[in-house]
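ok so i was messing around last nite and threw this chain in just to see what happens. nothing serious, just curious
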Amino acid sequence: MQFTDTLVTARLVRRYKRFLADVELDDGTIVTAHCANPGAMTGLNMPGLEVWLSPNRSPTAKLDWRWELVRVDGYLIGINTARPNAIVEEAIADDRIAELQGYDDMRREVRYGENSRIDILLEDASRPPCYVEVKNVHLRRPEGAHPTAAEFPDSVTKRGAKHLVEMANMVATGARAVMVYLVQRGDCDHFRIAADIDPAYASGLARAKAAGVEAICYVCRIKTDGIEVEGALPIVLDETL
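result:
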């Protein structure tokens, strides 16, 4: 996934009200950017961090800028949760996600279950449909119990827990369902569920996996001109949940 426009560098002043961030441009101007990330953004929202913005081209947009990347300890990290679906869609089309190869058709945002939409639906005449849910991962806690792990979620996600139930229900009908955890940072060597942050999600994933829902994790290569899937990342789950 290539950024349509050249990104602009800035310094973070503050992130507030979940979807807003004040940043200082290189010329000293303070502007407010849209922060497309409802999570806690732990470790990614400290004042003074170097950030990258894209111009907001939507004619209905109230803000001129969107926050895309942040640099922490020398690593670029993608924080825009509106990007992962397109990144994964591109990777599937390019056969870079081994577990999702071989389907003839791919659709986005398809209605299913009880008033839900699946991020990606893969279909093929020779096999059952595959429901793919994509989750953006950017949490790493260097001072935590697993300092080299990428973790999800970074805040309680009732919506995410609902999706696990919906996907398990699809498996019960004979379909395939796959959770794709997309890590938008390059300083982690494995993936875990942050059960201490959201125990309900952790237990929900355990139940979903027992029902046949698959879980895979891929890490991104992040540059200021684009983001792409680089390779698989090991998943370590607490099987006692």
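not much to say yet. The helical segments are 84-93, 158-172, 199-210.
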